[in-house]
Amino acid sequence: MSSTVGSLLSGLASCLTPMNMFASVVGVLIGTLTGVLPGLGITGALALLLPASYGLPPATAMIMFCGVYYGAMYGGSTTSILVNIPGEGASVVTCIEGYEMAKKGRAGAALAVAAIGSFIAGTMGTIGLTFFAPLLAKAALAFGPPEYFAIATLGLILLFNISGKSPLRSALMVMIGLMIGTIGFDPMTGVSRFTMGMIELEDGIEFIILTMGLYGVGEILASICEREERGEMMKFKFRDLYPNREELKRSLPPMFRAGILGFLIGLIPGPGMTISTFASYALEKRLSKHPEEWGHGAIEGVAGPESANNAANAAQMVPLLSLGLPFNSSGALLLAGFMIHGVAPGPMLMSTQPDLFWAIIASLYIGNVLLLIINLPLVGVFASLLKIPIKILLPIVMVVTFTGAYAINSSLFDLGLLILFGAIGFILKRAKFDLAPLVIGLFLGPTIETGLIQGMIISDGNFMTLLARPLAGTMLKIGFAVILFSIGRAIYQSIKARQTAEA
Questions:
Q1: What integer pLDDT is reported at residue 381 of this predicted model?
Q2: Handedness of CA 158, 44, 30, 363 (dihedral sign)
Q3: What's the total number of domains in the chain?
Q4: Which residues touch 418 (CB under 8 Å, ≥6 apart)?
């Protein structure tokens, strides 16, 4: 306990240098700006910032990335409340009660409650991360190849069931990601695979190029084809920004409940931030003493979901920092940023680069405080971004994306891949496929392949030996159980639907 607090204080001292504080402020501002703009969110912000971070010291770049990671969560609430347009998926629920409050002239109070809830629950989640991630990292030092194979496989199996509406679609996306991950040299034999004679593909597909193409270029192309939404922006005065005593009294319990609920849900692989907002909304609606207000501007419907998504945001950093395994698309992009600067999240990070590890944790505390200080006075400025014509905004974003992709390896071939993956991302988005399983499948594919091969070598080719290992065996058995449950549920639903149709 005392060593953890001491290490955290050392990380805070590192973050409070002028350069790192400036990076944190910039990250929070950019995160909030991209959270406000519909469609960009965390993934869009990180995809654009990857090239801009070249040349920065690793600690400074990581602090800026973490500022973006937290800032984008808050930005989405601004347009949800003022314009009824969610900046990102986790802010969809905020529209229900937040916009109704704005129509009653309580937009300021809703925005303030969203900011306070984000601060309280985000801090609660970061405290959980502070104490839970080091313990998990220490336990992970005992992991061997079979354990990494098992945990990556379990993560993908869980992703089939909770990412998107169709497990089959998620499974298809994961399989495509796994197949793309096999391009290049075989990790064990060194044999070139699926390169089609192209020397540029022998090192495999650049993970950063793929993510920038799918999320950057793909999102831009999709935005061009969608009708631009311009809702009526609600007005508010700065003196009305603060909730009254009754609103604050009703908001505080949901904030703390959502902090705990969001953190627990955030530990589950998949879209934990979005799921946590719906879970919190349902919980607060059930516990509310004012059921008649729900759907007409209940303050708890803003406080709970906005708090839950920030707590879940912190929780999803736990597997990333302690195991080096991202279980959502924003975590995968954050990992890409780490990799650019030679930082490898995982159990060795805490032992080999403890100063960097604790600086990252400390930057999350600082980011929460900065969000509260910066966002309240600048709410109107951020919301006015919606007035920028899309025909001006999108070309700027496209130029930044192409410049960053070229700067990675100074390769025109990479630009070709960027365009190719951008087109694929656009097609998949239009077909209502979730891109996150593809990206995570690509990243976890080599971990699964290497872990399985090395595990089979250790066990002399006997897969049952892997099942006999306590941790790896338990995770694999849970994965098998989830698969059997999903198949049984699908069969039951099919039979039930057939009986209903016949009736």
A1: 64
A2: positive
A3: 1
A4: 209, 212, 213, 216, 217, 401, 402, 405
From its phi and psi, is residue 346 left (phi > 0), alpha (psi between -120 and 50) or beta? left
Helices 300-315/107-140 angle, 10° precision: 20
Q: Which helix (H) or strand (E) holds 192?
A: strand 192-193
Measured from the Cβ of residue 220, the count of other Cβ atoms closer than 10 Å reads: 22
Q: Position 296: which residue type?
A: H
End-to-end CA separation in angstroms for the chain:
63
Q: For residue range 192-229, what is the model confidence (pLDDT) as tens digits?
A: 888 887 888 887 887 778 877 887 787 778 777 766 55
Q: In a 3-state reduction of DSSP, which class is residue 378?
A: coil
Given CA atoms 192, 194, 197, 198 in this order, what sign does their dihedral have? negative
Average pLDDT of the chain is: 77
Classify residue 342 as left (phi > 0), alpha (psi -120 to 50) or beta: left
Q: What's the longest Cα–Cα distance across the chain? A: 72
Phi, psi torsion values for 185, nearest 5 degrees? -75, 140
What is the distance between the alpha carbons of residues 475 and 276, in angstroms, rounded to a whole number? 24
Q: How far is 81 from 97, CA to CA, in rounded Å?
A: 8
Tell me the pLDDT tens digit for each residue of 270-283.
Answer: 556 767 887 888 88
Give dist(CA 91, CA 273) in Å, integer.
Answer: 9
Q: What stretch of H or E contains 193?
A: strand 192-193
Calpha distance 445→447 (Å, rounded): 5
- Which residue stretches of 376-469 are H helix? 379-383, 390-409, 412-430, 436-458, 463-468
Q: In the structure encoding, which two tokens stand for residue 19, read together?
A: 């350069």
The pTM for the full model equals 0.70
Burial 396-435 (b: 16+ CB within 10 A, else e): ebbebbbebbeebeeeeebeebbeebbebbbebbeeebbb
Query: What's the domain range around 444?
Result: 2-502
Model confidence band, residue 383 (pLDDT cutoffs 50, 70, 90): low
